C-alpha cells in the first residue's frame, strides 16, 4: 500500500465526521483515557510542538491529527528523504504525500507543515561542532575545509525533503501553492517560520532569472494563457474580452516571465503601450475605441500595468529583471524608442493621508493654510475639514489650494516618507528599487472607483533613464529618493 492510499484510508479515523464522543475526541483516545490518561481541554489546552505531540498518547481538542497518525505521517515524510532510495523513488513517495495533502483539511495541512518545519531541522550538535571547528580554524590553512564542513552541517534535511517534492512533474506547483497556504498562518504560529524561510530560499534559486524565459503574450496566444491574464491582472481590472484584446493588440505589447516547470503560468507580466509622450491619464490607454498607434513613429514606451501572479513566490524578486529584459527587447525591435516610463497607481496614498493629514497641515506654509481655510470655510482648517473637502476632488479647479495641497502631500508621500530607507508605497518601492525616479504626479489620472479609493484619482510616472539607473539606486540606498524638479517643486 503506497503513502497516498494508507493516509487516505486512515484519514477517516480523524476527520471531523469520524466517530467521536460528545467532546469531539476519537474513539481510540477515549479508550486510552479509560486506562488513566488525562486529556487537556478548555482553557488549559496549550498549543503543543510536534515533538510533544509525537511523544503523546492523546490528541488535544484543537489538533487535527492524533499522535498515532502524526507519527505515521512523519514516517512517510522521512521515507521521502531516505538516503538509500533514488531521486525518482523519493519523488514518487513525495507525490503520494502531495496527493493526500490536496484532499486534506486546512487543520490537517497545518499539522503536516509542523512536521516538515520542526522535524527536519539541522542537527544542532553537528552545527555546534562544525561552528567551533570553523572558529578555531579561522586564519589557518584549514579555514576553507572548516567552512565547507560548517556549510554542510547547516543544510537541513528539510532542504532535501522539499527538493524531493520538486522531482515529480507537478511538484513545483505543489510547493508554490503550499507556501501560499502557509504564509497567512505565520503570525499565529511561529513554529512554521523555518519551513517558510526554507521555501523562500529554495525559490530564490529555482526561480532565478537565469532559469526564466521571457515570452510575448499576444491575442494569438492560447486562450488558456489569455484567461490567466484576465485572472491575474492586479492593477486595472480587465472587464471584457474586448478589453483584453485591446491590451494585446498589434500596437501593444505584453511580456511575461515563465519557468520551465510552470510552462503555462506567467510568473509576472507587464503591459506596454506606445506613445509620443509620457502618458498622464489611464483612460486613453484602456479605451477600446482608440486609434491604433503607428509603431514606426512611437518614441515612448509606457508600462501601465505590472502584475505578479503567484502569491507563493512573495519575496522572490524578478520584476526588476523583467523590466530590463523588456526594455532591451523593445529597443531592439523599435529603435526610435527613447523614453521608458510607467503610469502607476499610488495605492497607499489615501490611507496614509487620512492618518497623517494633521501632520501635513502643520508642515504646510502659513499662506497656503490660510488659503485652505478659505477654501473649506474653516479657519484655521483642521484635518477633518480638509479631508471632507477633498471628496469634491473631481471638481476642483487647477489653481485650487486644495488641489495644490493634495499634490504636495502626494509628492511628500512618494519622495520623503521612508521606512528603513525604503519608500512606504509598495509600487514606489518596486520602481525606485529598480533605479527609476519619480517623474510626474498626474491629477485626475484614474477616476475609477479603485483609483479614487486608493489615491483620490492621482497617478504617478516613474521614469527609467537608462543612463542614471545605477545613480538612482545609490541615492535610494543612502535614503534619498530620486525625483524630478517638477516633483520637488510640489514639496511644501
Protein model, in words:
The protein has helices at 3-10, 27-34, 50-54, 67-80, 87-103, 106-118, 124-137, 143-154, 157-165, 171-182, 193-206, 223-232, 241-247, 283-286, 319-333, 349-363, 366-376, 383-389, 401-415, 426-433, 449-455, 469-477, 485-488, and strands at 213-216, 252-258, 268-275, 300-308, 339-342, 418-419, 422-423, 437-442, 459-463. It is of the alpha+beta class and 492 residues long. It has four domains: 3-121 and 156-206, Butyryl-CoA Dehydrogenase, subunit A, domain 3 (Up-down Bundle), CATH 1.20.140; 124-154, no CATH class; 210-342, Aminopeptidase (3-Layer(aba) Sandwich), CATH 3.40.630.180; 349-488, Aminopeptidase, CATH 3.40.630.150. Helix 15 (319-333) links the parallel strand 4 (300-308) and strand 5. Helix 1 (3-10) packs parallel to helix 5 and helix 6 crosses helix 11 (193-206). The longest helix has 17 residues, at 87-103. The radius of gyration is 28 Å and the shape is globular. It starts with a helix and ends with a helix.
List keywords for this structure.
single chain; 48% helix; alpha+beta; 10% strand; 492 residues; Butyryl-CoA Dehydrogenase, subunit A, domain 3; Aminopeptidase; two-stranded antiparallel ribbon
CATH class of the largest domain: Mainly Alpha
What profile does the largest beta sheet have?
5 strands, mixed
* Average pLDDT figure: 89
Mind telling me the CATH superfamily name of the largest domain?
Answer: Malonyl-CoA decarboxylase, oligemerization domain
Contiguous uncertain segments of 5+ residues: 9-45
Whole-number total of structural domains? 4
The amount of beta strand, in percent, is 5-15%
Give the class from helix and strand content and strand pairing: alpha+beta
Give the N-terminus to C-terminus distance in angstroms: 73 Å
Amino acid at each position: 500500500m503506497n503513502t497516498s492510499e494508507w493516509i487516505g484510508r486512515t484519514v477517516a479515523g480523524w476527520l471531523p465526521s469520524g466517530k467521536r464522543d460528545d467532546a469531539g475526541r476519537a474513539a481510540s483516545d477515549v479508550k486510552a483515557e479509560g486506562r488513566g490518561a488525562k486529556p487537556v481541554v478548555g482553557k488549559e489546552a496549550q498549543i503543543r510542538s510536534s515533538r510533544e505531540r509525537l511523544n503523546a498518547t492523546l490528541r488535544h481538542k484543537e489538533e487535527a491529527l492524533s499522535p498515532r497518525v502524526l507519527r505515521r505521517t512523519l514516517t512517510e515524510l522521512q521515507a521521502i528523504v531516505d538516503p538509500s532510495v533514488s531521486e525518482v523513488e523519493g519523488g514518487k513517495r513525495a507525490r503520494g504525500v502531495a496527493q493526500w495533502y490536496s484532499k486534506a483539511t486546512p487543520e490537517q495541512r497545518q499539522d503536516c507543515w509542523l512536521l516538515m518545519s520542526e522535524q527536519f531541522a539541522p542537527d544542532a550538535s553537528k552545527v555546534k561542532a562544525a561552528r567551533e571547528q570553523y572558529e578555531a580554524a579561522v586564519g589557518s590553512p584549514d579555514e576553507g575545509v572548516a567552512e565547507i564542513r560548517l556549510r554542510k552541517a547547516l543544510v537541513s534535511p528539510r532542504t532535501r525533503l522539499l527538493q524531493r517534492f520538486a522531482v515529480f512533474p507537478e511538484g513545483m506547483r505543489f510547493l508554490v501553492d503550499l507556501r501560499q497556504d502557509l504564509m497567512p498562518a505565520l503570525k499565529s504560529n511561529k513554529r512554521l517560520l523555518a519551513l517558510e524561510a526554507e521555501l523562500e530560499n529554495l525559490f530564490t534559486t529555482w526561480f532565478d532569472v537565469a532559469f526564466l524565459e521571457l515570452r510575448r503574450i499576444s491575442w494569438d496566444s492560447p486562450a488558456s494563457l489569455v484567461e490567466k491574464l484576465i485572472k491575474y491582472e492586479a492593477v486595472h481590472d480587465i472587464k471584457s474580452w474586448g478589453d483584453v484584446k485591446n491590451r494585446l493588440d498589434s500596437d501593444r505589447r505584453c511580456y511575461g516571465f515563465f519557468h520551465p516547470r510552470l510552462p503555462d503560468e506567467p510568473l509576472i507580466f507587464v503591459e506596454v503601450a506606445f506613445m509620443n509622450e509620457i502618458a498622464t491619464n489611464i483612460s486613453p490607454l484602456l479605451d477600446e475605441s482608440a486609434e491604433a498607434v503607428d509603431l514606426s513613429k512611437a518614441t515612448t514606451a509606457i508600462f501601465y500595468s505590472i502584475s505578479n501572479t503567484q502569491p507563493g513566490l512573495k519575496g522572490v524578486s524578478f520584476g526588476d529583471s523583467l523590466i530590463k529584459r523588456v526594455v532591451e527587447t523593445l529597443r531592439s525591435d523599435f529603435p526610435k524608442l527613447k523614453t521608458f516610463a510607467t503610469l502607476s497607481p499610488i495605492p497607499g496614498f489615501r490611507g496614509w493621508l487620512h492618518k497623517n493629514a494633521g501632520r501635513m497641515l502643520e508642515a504646510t506654509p502659513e499662506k497656503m493654510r490660510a488659503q485652505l481655510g478659505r477654501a473649506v470655510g474653516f479657519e484655521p482648517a483642521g484635518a477633518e475639514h480638509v479631508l471632507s473637502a477633498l471628496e469634491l476632488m473631481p471638481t476642483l479647479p487647477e489653481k485650487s489650494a486644495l488641489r495644490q495641497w493634495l499634490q504636495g502631500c502626494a509628492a511628500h508621500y512618494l519622495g520623503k516618507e521612508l521606512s528603513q530607507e525604503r519608500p512606504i508605497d509598495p509600487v514606489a518601492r518596486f520602481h525606485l528599487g529598480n533605479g527609476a525616479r519619480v517623474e510626474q504626479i498626474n491629477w485626475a489620472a484614474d477616476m475609477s472607483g479603485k483609483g479614487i479609493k486608493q489615491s483620490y484619482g492621482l497617478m504617478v510616472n516613474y521614469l527609467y533613464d537608462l543612463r542614471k539607473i545605477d545613480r538612482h539606486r545609490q541615492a535610494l540606498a543612502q535614503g534619498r529618493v530620486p525625483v524630478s524638479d517638477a516633483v520637488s517643486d510640489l514639496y511644501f
